[in-house]
Every structure is written in structure tokens, then in C-alpha cells.
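C-alpha cells for chain A. Residues wanted.
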């Protein structure tokens, strides 16, 4: 599940939860004649509106959900301390749920996502690399931008995978075994069924001869692995 799908799923779950809470409170008020405290109504309505905004990918939805969840958590703690004086399984589960929502709304990825109005790209990028550490760093960074990355270690498996699944771009590490990055790029460009997919080659050196070799092999971009990944993302964004 990519970040966009996760946001929509969480927003939908919150809308359903708060709808049930509102209906339950109104039902209790009508059937038992219990006056619902205004704080509950305000909090539930606030959370419901925030959840709708969250599902739509709006920054105001993130902010309302964040502060509404903080208020709900405080209310839960006060209720335990001042009224019930006990903690059961459902109380713990609800507290964990509020903490998760608060954490989700506070992370940098969420702020970037909602500030851009749910406009993060939904690209599918294949990365061919045998450097486990670099794979981890690259996947983590691009995930922040909502980009799906599929990692493959074996150069021989790339062509078959590309023909089965659609990818918008391929990132190839220069130093591979048994095929080099340039050799793999040439093979991709020689296959008419997949030759239209842009290829980016990442190497250890920032030398002009390396760039020329990569471009001659059919790559649209050669970039050193040491380059800032935010800059690499911006260049890929320009390509796509």
C-alpha cells in the first residue's frame, strides 16, 4: 500500500469510526434521555470533519484531525483518572489508536503530502541495485514523495519483470554483476517492447566520460550515487 492509499484508507476508517460514535451518542440521548455533554458533541463533530478532510487529502483535514485526536486522548486520560479509575483492554486500544493518528499526522511525509493537496506522484519506479544500504536509503527517501519503488538485485530478471508489470522509469546501479549497468541499459533499449521506458544510471563517479557512456547506452540521465537524493528526485520529476 503506497502513501496515497494509506491516507485514504485511514481517512475512511476515521470517518466510519466517528460516524458510529455520533450515531451511538445521539441514540443514547434519544432512548435514555441522557443529555450528552457538549464537549463530546463538539469533539466528535470536529473529528468527523477532520477525517473527511484527511480522506480528501486536505491540509486543514490533517490539522483538525491532529488537534482533535490530541483532545480526544486528553479526554480519555482525564476520564480514566477522574471518573472510571480503571484501565481495560478497550481503553488501551483506543489510546494506542489516538497515538497512532497523532503520529501519522505529525510526520514530515504527511505534512508534505497534505500541503501539496494530495498531488504527490503515483509513479512506479524499478531500481536495479546490489547495494543493500543504498537501496534502503533510496526507497525511504522516495517513499516520502509517494513514489512506489520495486527493488531487483539480479540484472537477468529485469526484462522479464518489466514485461509483466508496468514501470514509469528504471534506475540502474552502474556496478552490477554479471551485467554492468550500461550493458543492462543497452539490452533494455534493444528490446522494442520496453525500449520506451526511461533509464537512469547511478554510478560511483561524477566524470564526464561516465556520463557519455551512460547516454550512449540509452540512459536519459547519469548521476553519482553520492548526489543529494532530493535533487535526484527533482531531475526524475522533470523526466516524467
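Reply:
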Amino acid at each position: 500500500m503506497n502513501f496515497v492509499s494509506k491516507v485514504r484508507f485511514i481517512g475512511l476508517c476515521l470517518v466510519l469510526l466517528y460516524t458510529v460514535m455520533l450515531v451511538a451518542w445521539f441514540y443514547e440521548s434519544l432512548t435514555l434521555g441522557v443529555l450528552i455533554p457538549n464537549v463530546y458533541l463538539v469533539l466528535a463533530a470536529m473529528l468527523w470533519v477532520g477525517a473527511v478532510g484527511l480522506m480528501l487529502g486536505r491540509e486543514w483535514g490533517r490539522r483538525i484531525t491532529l488537534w482533535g485526536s490530541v483532545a480526544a486522548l486528553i479526554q480519555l486520560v482525564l476520564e480514566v483518572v477522574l471518573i472510571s479509575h480503571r484501565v481495560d483492554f478497550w481503553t488501551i486500544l483506543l489510546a494506542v489508536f489516538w497515538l497512532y493518528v497523532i503520529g501519522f499526522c505529525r510526520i514530515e511525509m504527511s505534512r508534505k503530502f497534505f500541503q501539496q493537496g494530495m498531488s504527490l506522484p503515483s509513479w512506479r519506479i524499478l531500481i536495479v541495485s546490489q547495494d543493500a544500504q543504498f537501496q534502503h536509503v533510496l526507497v525511504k527517501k522516495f517513499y516520502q514523495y509517494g513514489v512506489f519503488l520495486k527493488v531487483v538485485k539480479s540484472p537477468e530478471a529485469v526484462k522479464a519483470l518489466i514485461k509483466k508489470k508496468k514501470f514509469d522509469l528504471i534506475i540502474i546501479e552502474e556496478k552490477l554483476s554479471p551485467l554492468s549497468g550500461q550493458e543492462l541499459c543497452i539490452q533494455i533499449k534493444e528490446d522494442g517492447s520496453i525500449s520506451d521506458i526511461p533509464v537512469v544510471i547511478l554510478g560511483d563517479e561524477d566524470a564526464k566520460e561516465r556520463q557519455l557512456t551512460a547516454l550512449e547506452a540509452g540512459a536519459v540521465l547519469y548521476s553519482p550515487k553520492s548526489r543529494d537524493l532530493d535533487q535526484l528526485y527533482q531531475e526524475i520529476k522533470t523526466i516524467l
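The chain has two domains: 3-115, 124-239. The chain has a mean pLDDT of 79.
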